[in-house]
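Look over this one:
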Amino acid sequence: MLRRWLSHPKMGNDFLYGHEAKVWNETYDHDFIAMPRPEGEIERDGLSRLFLDQMVDLWQRGVGRFYKKGVTPDNPMVRYENRKVLRAANITSTLISSGLPIASIIALNFISRTIIRLVTVAVFTMAFSLILVLVTNARRVEVFAATAA
């Protein structure tokens, strides 16, 4: 079914090329297995899901296509380890969590009008709570408490 979708002109339209196109050949059928992920294996907050589900694909389409470590004509699969992807998500989370307060302090330093300063504080507070909702598994009450603090 996947092979049909990949080759159909109104669906996949043979968008894969090079080594990636060979992965789905019938030659490699014996290499595929699908297993459910055990509960609690990895942290599945919003940012982790974004990195594991979307960012790896974007990386591979962009910069990653030039790095083919371990790829051979016999084995055209590129593998990304979850722990390395999650490390990138953790670094991103750390940069966001430390960068947002610093950005608000710097922005407020350059604003002299009181009303604009209040609006800026409100915008940064809303950004903080939105980021908290999107990148963590925090419950609404926890987001409310963190934002109020």
The chain is about 55% helix and 0% strand. The two ends are 52 Å apart (CA to CA).
